[in-house]
Structures are given as C-alpha cells and as structure tokens.
Amino acid sequence: IAMAPPPARVFAELIPARAPSPLPVPVPAGRGGPREPSGREVHVSGNAELSAGPDRARVSLRLSSRKEAAGEARSSVSRRLEYIAHSARQRGVPEENMTVTEDFSRVENTYQMEAEVCIIFSDFGKMQNVCNLLIEKLGTSVTISPPHFYHTPEAVDTLRRQVCVAAVGNTLRKAQEVCRLFGQSLGKPLLVREEETKEWGGHIDIPLSNSPDSLTLQERIQNATAYASCRVFAVFEIKGKENRRNKLL
C-alpha cells in the first residue's frame, strides 16, 4: 500500500507586498493578536538548547564524642570544630559559608556531644582539597557526606536569558539565510516572540544494584546539570534586492 509523503515543514514564509488597507485593524497594546503586514516580510522560527553545570556544592561534616565527663565531651568536639573551620578559612572559604549546629545530651551514665558543620563551596576543586585534608587529619572521627550540588537562583536566571538570546540569534541568522537565498536584503525586526521554553535536569540512570551515594563526583555534577530550551518566532521586513557589494563581503 503506497503511503502519502509526510507534509513539508515550513520554517520560513515570505509574505508578498499588500495594497494598503483603508481601514487597518487595530491591535490592542500588549496583545499578540493578528497584525496587518506592513509590506514584504519573512516569518521564521528558531530554537536553542543550552546547559549549565551546578555553581554550588554543600558538604556536611558530622562529629561526636561520648565521655563520662561533660567537659571532656565538649572539648573533644570543639577542638575538631576549630580545626575544620581553620582549614576551610585557610583555603578561602568565607565565614558566612559555614554553619555549625551542636547537640549536647546525657546517654545513660555518659555525656554525648554531637555537631554538624555545613560548608557551601563555589569552587569544587577547593572543596575536594578541604575534604581530602580533613579525612587525612581527622580520620574516622569525622563523617563527611557526599557533596550536594545545586544552582543558585542567579545561575538559573542567567541560563534562561542565555538560551532565549541564543534562540533569537538563530532566528535572525535563519532569516538572513532565507533572504540571501532569494537575493533579498533583510530589514528591521517587526515582531519577536518567545513561544516556548522548557527546563529539565540532567538525571542519569543509576543501576538498581547501586545506591545514589555510590556516584562519582563527575556523575553527581552531571546529575545536577540544568538544561533549557527556547523556541522563538520572529517577523522581519524585507528591504529589497541584496546589495551586490555586501553579497561579495
């Protein structure tokens, strides 16, 4: 059975000149309703897709000590807390990027002191250096959780702007190529409209036999990478025949 060929996909449309209408149809301000073509136009759509890796990582370090004397339990944890804070500061971590929470309790006939340090890193190489040093110097007396990577709101906003601008640029280049193909010169933009945006995360498949904690550092960064796409529709004026001098350039 012969099948009909698929319909052609129109990515550009050249609009011929029209006679001026004696009564133009007004378009309300701020509305994307139908518009009366002012002359010869080219209608094009363009797409772009970009990604951005996480710009922050949060690491949690847990300490604990159980002693018969309350002062000894506190002192044991305090010394390690001071060493952690000193090591991070020496490697350029701001004081405001470190948060410490402490919990002191009585367990049977002993005193237990627990503490957690949360450190926010913007430099992942610096994060690895600090964690490696603490593991080397403190050993099993400190428990370091795998880093949690994420994006700040500013990084997400930057990605959204960049993908929109990239889509507009692709749309402009497509319009230029269409006009050049027909020997025409592209004029000013008459309409630029963002039609669709999408955002998603770069989640990777984790085998059922593995736990999320078994991911490597690069896999965690990939898993936290953000993606965005944008589709733009634009209408450009066609000025006329392409200038031969510009064509040679």
From TrEMBL:
GO cellular component, as recorded: cytoplasm; nucleus
Signal sequence bounds: none
Record carries keyword Nucleus: yes
InterPro entries hit by this protein: IRAK1BP1 (IPR030312), SIMPL/DUF541 (IPR007497)
Bias-annotated ranges (Basic and acidic residues): 33-43
Alphabetical list of Pfam families matching this protein: SIMPL
Main location: cytoplasm
GO biological process: immune response; positive regulation of canonical NF-kappaB signal transduction
Localization: Cytoplasm; Nucleus
Region span, Disordered: 17-55
Keywords: Cytoplasm, Nucleus
Family: Belongs to the IRAK1BP1 family.
Name of protein: IKBP1 protein
Organism: Trogon melanurus (Black-tailed trogon)
